[in-house]
Amino acid sequence: MSHGPSRHYSTSSPSDGTIPAEAEATGPAYNTLAPLLSMLARASEIPLQDLARRAQCSPSYLSRILSGQRVPSWAITERLARTCEADPAIVRKTWETEQLRRRPPRSTVDDRRDIDSLAGVSDRAQAVRKLATALRTLHVRAGQPTPQQICVHSRWRLHAPQVTAILERDEPCDWPTLVLLLSILGGSPDYFRPLWQAATEHPPT
Predict the structure, then answer these.
(1) Average pLDDT in the 129-134 region?
(2) In this structure, how many other beta carbons lie within 10 angstroms of the beta carbon of residue 62?
(3) Which of 38, 159, 163, 169 is 20 to 30 A from residue 4's alpha carbon, by CA?
(4) Closest-CA residue to 193 (of 66, 28, 57, 23)
(5) pLDDT confidence bin for 149, thresholds 50/70/90
(6) Higher-confidence position of 14 and 87
(7) Is residue 137 over pLDDT 70?
(8) CB 106 within 8 A of CB 97
(9) What pTM did the predictor assign?
(10) Rounded distance between C-alpha atoms, residue 87 and residue 59, angstroms
(11) What count of other Cβ atoms lies within 10 Å of the Cβ of residue 75?
(12) What is the largest CA-CA distance in the chain?
């Protein structure tokens, strides 16, 4: 049975219960450029050190680019594309999309204890709904990667049907799975943990 991309996700942030800026982690979320550059690098069969030399960057920096930890300048990206015999014009579109998506955080929070994800939540049912809405909002802000793309980025620790169920059903998953999904989408565990605990009736620890 084929598990294609879901067609039920919203194309805009929900109007109610959206997560605040504090819920978004400051680290990298899902990187749309890294899988493309990694594929080109593997297909070229050029050793990492040689590829880094031709791209005019260090091997360690190139490794961070290919793993999605860093988004390179267009100059480095273009040199990588040409070295791997790819059309820079095609790569440029993906690079521009990633640059637009990786906007700076809208605000900062000095004390994470100030985050109150349970505001307005009085019972488990409300917590479940708010958790589901917050996850869908986070997914939209991350650029709406497909379940398959999320699975690839998780190194197949997540599966497409599992991701679809988490994003579409108002039924919380286990905490380790949620943490992994948050790391891919760029969410803050500090914000989501109290909400997950209330939604699953797990006492705070």
Answers:
(1) 89
(2) 22
(3) 38
(4) 23
(5) confident
(6) 87
(7) yes
(8) no
(9) 0.53
(10) 23
(11) 11
(12) 58
